[in-house]
Amino acid sequence: MISESAVAGFRKGGLSAERSEALALPHWNDEDWTQLFRFTTTRKIAAGDALIRRGEPDRTLYFVLQGGLEVITHSEDGLTMGRAALVGPGSALGELAFFDGGPRSASAWAVDDCQVAAMTPDLYSAFEHSAPSLARELLFALGRILAIRLRKSNKKFGV
């Protein structure tokens, strides 16, 4: 079970104006967030450790509760790496594989000690059954994050 302070930290990070990739659900109250996090498991990641590795078949979606993770992309040759994003409290990562079921397209490493809430597709289905309107709102918020990240990538590559 996720503590009230972790929920509060997640919400605080998500409401921060400079966090354009935060999970934007400003009208959700503590009970809504608690309902979501009932359908997750928590993981701690030590600074320097990987949470996600490119090419893995895992579909888990992660909500960052504490700390920061650096998302690293790879070129087609698989050798060249570049920092795609720094993801902190209030945001999510792993959404692409969560939605499309494909292998991980990037890697994510903890830049400091982190805590995340993990949601598998099965846990999402249980959440959706329990709270359909909240589940729908979550999907739209995740879609917004995907759109922002795609626009940033397009801009970076002049598309």
From TrEMBL:
It comes from the Bacteria. InterPro entries: cNMP-bd_dom, cNMP-bd_dom_sf, Env_Response_Regulators, RmlC-like_jellyroll. One of its GO terms (molecular function) is DNA-binding transcription factor activity. Residues 24-119 form the Cyclic nucleotide-binding domain. One of its GO terms (cellular component) is cytosol. It holds the Pfam family cNMP_binding. PANTHER family: CRP FAMILY TRANSCRIPTIONAL REGULATORY PROTEIN, HTH-TYPE TRANSCRIPTIONAL REGULATOR ARCR. This is Sulfate permease, SulP family. It comes from Methylocapsa palsarum. The lineage of its organism: Bacteria, Pseudomonadati, Pseudomonadota, Alphaproteobacteria, Hyphomicrobiales.
